[in-house]
Design a protein that fits this description.
Order of helices and strands: HHHHHH
Distance between the termini: 39 Å
Number of domains: 1
Helix content: over 70%
Number of strands: 0
Structural class: mainly alpha
Largest sheet: none
Number of helices: 6
Mean pLDDT: 79
């Protein structure tokens, strides 16, 4: 049931006001879901959709920095992982 709810949120995130989904309460719930193996992929997909939401560049940068900070603080992401993923994305785009 949780996976279905997160899928729906991810599907409609482009229509939802970002303040309703990129806030401390919702992010904390997503972090709790990321700790559950059965929910992790769906929770990460939801975060991906939030980050991909159409926004002004300054607001998007702040949103991404906020997510990286929260994920690092909770031990779910390290700076080396971010750099590795970024390098892979650059390589894919430049091909």
């Amino acid at each position: 049931m949780v996976c279905v709810c997160l899928d729906v949120i991810g599907a409609y995130v482009s229509w939802i006001d970002v303040s309703l989904i990129a806030n401390e309460r919702f992010v904390q719930v997503l972090l709790q879901f990321m700790a559950v193996p059965l929910l992790r992929e769906t929770a990460c997909d939801c975060v991906h959709e939030i980050i991909c939401k159409g926004m002004e560049p300054t607001a998007k940068t702040a949103l991404i920095e906020s997510f990286v900070s929260v994920l690092e603080t909770n031990g779910l992401l390290t700076v080396s992982q971010v750099c590795c993923c970024f390098r892979q994305s650059v390589l894919i785009v430049s091909k």
